[in-house]
Amino acid sequence: MEVESALEGLLATFPELKLHAGKGVVVCSLSHHEMPGRAEVVRAYVDGKKFRTLKAEKDFDFGRLQPYIIPSRKRKRQLFCALTNRYMNRKPAEVELHLKGKRYRRALDNYNAGRLSLFEERFGKKWPAGNTAAVGNKEEEMEGERKEEGNDRDEEEKEEISELPPVSTMKSRRVVHHGVRRKGVELSRCSGPPTKRRQLHAVSGLKHNRAKHEL
C-alpha cells in the first residue's frame, strides 16, 4: 500500500505520466517511454536528464518570443531568429542565452528604431530583397574578403621571387628538349607557382641564346 501511495503521488505531480492499470506500466507522454509501475523506477526516470529536458521544453513558452523567434520551416527541430538571421536548437537554455546576447539586443534596438526589418527564412542562396541593410553589409564583407585574398596572393608572389637565386649562381648543363641538345638551366618540368615558372623560363631563354653565340 505504501508503494501505491508513492506512485500515486508521482503521477499527481507529473501529469505527463499515465498509469496503464491493465498492463501495470507507466507511460510518459513526452518520450513515449514505458516503465514498470513501481515508484522507485518512476522516480529514477523523472530525476533523469532526458525527462527534465523534455519537460523544460514543454513548459517553456516559445510563443511569447514571436514574431522575433519562430519555429523554423526549413529545420523542423530548430527555431529561427528573424532579427539576427540565426538558427538555434529548440532548447530553453539555448534560447535564453541568445536573448541575452549582444547581437540580439543590438538587432532589437535597430528594429525598434526602424533601421532594420525582419529577416525572412530563406531556402536558397539569395538574401531577402526587403532587407537592403543586410544585403549591403554582406556585400561589403565579401568585398573585404576578396581584397584580403588578393593581398595575400601578391605577398606570396613577392616571396617566391625573392627566394630565387641570382642568374649567375644558377648551374648550367647540357639538356635535351624535344630531340635538340642545348645549354640551359635544369628544370623539373617547370614545377612551382606561375610566377616562378615564368622567371625560370626567362633565365633558360637567356642561357640558350648565349649558347647559340658560343657555337
List the helices and strands and how they pair.
Elements: H1 2-13, E1 17-20, E2 25-28, E3 34-36, H2 39-46, H3 49-59, E4 69-71, E5 78-81, E6 86-89, H4 92-100, H5 102-112, H6 132-163, E7 172-177, E8 180-185, H7 194-214
Helix pairs in contact: 1-2
Describe what you observe in this structure.
With 215 residues, the protein is an alpha+beta fold. It has a 3-stranded antiparallel β-sheet with strand order 1-2-3, with no helix packed on it. Strand 1 and strand 2 form a beta hairpin. Helix 1 runs parallel beside helix 2.
List keywords for this structure.
Surfeit locus protein 2; 7 helices; Surf2; 3 domains; 48% helix; 3-stranded antiparallel β-sheet; 215 residues; alpha+beta
Helical proportion?
Answer: 40-55%
What is the first-to-last residue Cα distance? 116 Å
**Biggest beta sheet attributes:** 3 strands, antiparallel
Strand content: 15-25%
Please state the average pLDDT score: 73
Structural class: alpha+beta
The dominant shape is elongated
Give me a quick take on this structure.
The protein is an alpha+beta fold and 215 residues long.
